[in-house]
Amino acid sequence: MLTESTLDPANAVYRKVIKAGDHWSHVIKKGQTFRILDLEGNQAADTLFYNAHDPVDRYSASDTIRCQQALYLTSGSKLMSSGGNELLEITADTCGRHDTLGGACSRESNTMRYAIEKENMHACRDSFICGLHDHSDDLGKRDITCNINFFMNVPVTPEGGLTFADGISAPGRYVEMVAKMDVIALISNCPQLNNPCNAYNPTPVEAIIWD
Ligand SMILES: [Zn+2]
């Protein structure tokens, strides 16, 4: 569902452009509003959330899908944790659909999907690991779960098949959510150079936070 925000980035308390292929992590406090802005369009923002006070309690795709009885995320979606807690709720969305199923690219999946020579190319899984280490030496590879792909379009066919389709986002589209508890947000701004979903051209996104 397309819903616009009334918030003005000029009043934001935090703004950060995440460069193409880079990672970013930040604590979003309970009650703050968090926007991810697709600056140039059709960029996949692979995203994970953790309870900032207990990172074992983290975004759960299956709990989120079951809670809302729907596969895609948009305005009104509550992002649920593995412990059954509401991490954030999406309050504005000018893209209209975000993927819960496709997961993140990894060096291993790049060799499977594209070519064995792709093994050394940087991938979201590496970015997630770097972002988690920024927070704590206790967080690492085993703390990466099935992530949200904001702005990515992965339609499910009537037969239940997954298709990675052309993006439906565009320059300036955004998704916005309110934190229901203090959360660690972790984004891998996908560096993928082999997938047509971003036109083989990763581009920057912006993280914006309001009190
Ligand atoms: Zn990726």
UniProtKB/TrEMBL annotation:
Residues 17-184 form the DUF1989 domain. This is DUF1989 domain-containing protein.
